# Entry
Amino acid sequence: MPGRRSRSPEEGGGKIADVPAASLPSTIVAASCQLELAIGQVDANRAAAAAAVRSAADAGAQLVVLPELTPSGYVFESLAEAVALAEPLDGPTVRSWSRLAAELDLVVVGGICEAPPDGRPRNTSVVVDRDGLRAAYHKVHLWGDEPDFFTPGSLAPPVVDTALGRVATMVCYDLEFPEWVRLAALQGADVLAAPTNWPAEPVRAAPTPIEVVRVQAGASTNRMAIVAADRCGVERGVEWTGGSCIVAATGHLVAGPPPQPGPAVLVGELHLGLVKDKRTGPRNDALGDRRPELYGPLSR
Amino acid sequence: MPGRRSRSPEEGGGKIADVPAASLPSTIVAASCQLELAIGQVDANRAAAAAAVRSAADAGAQLVVLPELTPSGYVFESLAEAVALAEPLDGPTVRSWSRLAAELDLVVVGGICEAPPDGRPRNTSVVVDRDGLRAAYHKVHLWGDEPDFFTPGSLAPPVVDTALGRVATMVCYDLEFPEWVRLAALQGADVLAAPTNWPAEPVRAAPTPIEVVRVQAGASTNRMAIVAADRCGVERGVEWTGGSCIVAATGHLVAGPPPQPGPAVLVGELHLGLVKDKRTGPRNDALGDRRPELYGPLSR
# Structure
């Protein structure tokens, strides 16, 4: 079983506070906010996010997940546009989410276009709670034209000890690398909160979008709950999947994906006991049954 | 991209013949034989398998996959029973499947309880074609009481160059380790043929059994077709899922799982061009976008 790691937000990792397991709730209520956003409409996008967070809190949510690149939108036409829409980690979006987290006693995870102190923007997911910014993760696996706009990260998904359990985060295409999802689990994540912008596939897999299938498999093989918040609508010709979902550690869908396209706040209950117990049978353990001594070729 | 590896069947790997890619068909027809078998009824089980192989061939199949431990059945009560039902790699089952493969020009993949020259039985998947036995793989990740009956394998899934493309195999619970499925893809597998005996979950995931969801995700994240052949019925109180499926390299279901429990021969077409091309977008590649330098903790 993995040991606890301590890293600072500046390193891309999460601060590990000492929250004794005994003090954790047995269940938590998670929300996935599926938003329709518009490229460059930063104020409107922030307002839509804030409204969704409040709506989720009204429904009892304690952990609220927002899409990738929420304030800026996704389909940049140039690096200059991405730079113009980027903001620092102490900028208005993180301050807004931190205020909401403090006021409503939430853990909020969402994506921003981050302006680092130097270099090109980062495709970043932040974890904030009542104490403010807890972790900032830089997307490691970049999709499509993202290399034109973002410097990729090179640090593992952070795992943050919160009042709700250990919350990890990664961004969208990262989820397509089972190695990466596994790393979050090996580092002890209870819930993986994943901001996404899933472009719609030419042929949608039936009965469940393949993006959601991958999330279910990631949850199931790791006995880790996963909350993915997706976009909906169309942005500069890119149609989004609208595949937001809340998935239990068994891989079963707790909520989503919404049957109809459009904005939605999904809410569902996650059982931390199920997540903490990696046993999948009397003699089996999802992580303990791994044969890491045979997995060497994966890192060569 | 992975290089070609040459290993002998005795090493648990597949012989790599020189089949030029240009000589491969653009599509192949695969079959998954979902069988109802009975513990210890070796003759009847072999007959059921042979009948299913013939039925698949009649439907045009070129690659035929059979369940885990087809001749013996699965739910052993003792090591002595497993030993009594074990047979060598040149025993009657492999001889039967080799004869069928030669007569009908098939690649056949199926599971047997193997009696090795020394030691306890192995939970083995064999790959046979018109040239006879091409590879024998020993299940690496053991489920439930299997450690009481089987010595686990310690070699990677073999990848066998056949007239239909590069066929890899692993067994049932192995599929729950994304690392292992990835290794088959990294070794260049076009199609992963997986004999399984999936015990039914207490609560079946809707709308698709979670075992099938994991196979779809494995196919999708690796751009590799997967054919899984499952059991149906009940054996000594264990109900089988009946989750046999044929999955394209996109993760989309080509055939299965059967909506009703019971024996079935699923047949579906797989596009080798889709498998050979790991590009998932103009600037993306399912294997090339991996960041192996960051995956070190997976093998520690």
Observations:
- Chain B has one domain: 25-299.
